[in-house]
Amino acid sequence: MQAIMYVAHGSRVAEGVHQVNQFLEKCMDQINVPIQKISYLELVRPTILEGISHCVDLGADCIVVQPILLLSAGHDKRDIPGIIDKARKIFPNVRFIYGQPFGVDSCIIDILFERLREQQTGSERVEDVLVVGRGSSYPEIPQAFAQIRSMLMKRGIHHVSVCYMAAARPLLKEGLEQASKHLSGKLYILPYLLFSGILMKSMKRIIAAKDNRSSLVLCRSIGYHPLLIRLLKKRIEESMSYDRLPTQS
Predict the structure, then answer these.
(1) Residue 197: its pLDDT value, please?
(2) Where are the beta strands (DSSP E) in the chain?
(3) How far apart (Å, rounded) are the C-alpha atoms in residues 222 and 239?
(4) What torsion do the CA atoms of 92, 95, 101, 102 make, to the nearest 10 degrees?
(5) Alpha-carbon distance 22 to 209, whole Å?
(6) What is the phi/psi pair of residue 108, to 5°?
(7) Computed from CA positions of residues 225, 105, 144, 84, in that sequence, does the dihedral angle turn out positive or negative?
(8) Predicted confidence band at 125 (pLDDT cuts at 50, 70, 90)?
(9) What 3-state DSSP class applies to 191?
(10) With 50 as the cut, is the pLDDT of residue 92 above it?
(11) DSSP label at 226?
């Protein structure tokens, strides 16, 4: 029997967990697979192994492990595959298929523009944007953000820069300083995050401490937008058609 196990990040912020659960419940309603469960990488239960065990108890013999992550970095490349390897040893008769994160996609760019429009007043144009990512030491992350920057600029934003909250440079404070050097109007800060958790609170504190904070406009995080349901369905269909990991350990 086929199963899908969604792997969310997990958070100390209860609202963040509630948001992802609501989003995934809406996804489950639109995906015709008999067994669908949610698990978490950290801080929240069930763990991935617990979720897999639950799927097997319900009769699953093929499990799509679908990460609910924006981009591919350490969790996607190292942590989740390592747990799948353990699961293969525990459940040798179960076939595991490893899905892909959301990745860089035009529908996420659409959501970013929606977040910008929410903050616009009157007929003002958005000229300067600072995209803020979580950050990672993996080289794929700056490559992905370079692509995101290019896609935003192709849609008419003149100045787009990128910074990170951790593990990559420039950090947010540096990004704000650099972006403010050529600023003539407002700087729109776009968090490339799924929900408004601890990192968003950190952003607000850093922005509030800036001398030019009146010209800094913090947009909402990407959030669990309806367009992401469509993208997640696409990723699951892709997952069904190929494996990123061998079917046997």
Answers:
(1) 78
(2) 2-8, 35-40, 62-67, 95-98, 128-133, 159-164, 187-191, 216-218
(3) 23
(4) -160
(5) 34
(6) -70, -35
(7) positive
(8) confident
(9) strand
(10) yes
(11) H
Give 106-218's CATH code, choosing from 3.40.50.1400, 3.30.565.10, 3.90.1150.10, 3.40.50.1470. Answer: 3.40.50.1400
Tokens encoding 33: 């697979």
Q: How many helices (H) and strands (E) does the chain have?
A: 9, 8
The DSSP code sequence of 101-141 is ---S-HHHHHHHHHHHHHH--TT----EEEEEE---SSTHH
Q: Rounded mean pLDDT of the chain?
A: 91
Helix, strand, coil % (nearest 5) of the chain? Answer: 45, 20, 35
The two tokens of residue 4 are 């899908």
d(CA 46, CA 39): 5
CATH architecture of the domain with range 2-102+226-241: 3-Layer(aba) Sandwich (3.40)
Please give the Cα distance from 50 to 35 (Å, whole number). 14
Torsion sign over Cα 84, 88, 91, 97: positive
Predicted model pTM: 0.90
Residues in the chain: 249
| Sign of the dihedral through C-alpha 82, 193, 141, 170 | negative
Query: Which tokens is 198 given?
Result: 């601890």
Amino acid at 159: H
| One-letter amino acid of 72 | S
pLDDT score for 248: 43
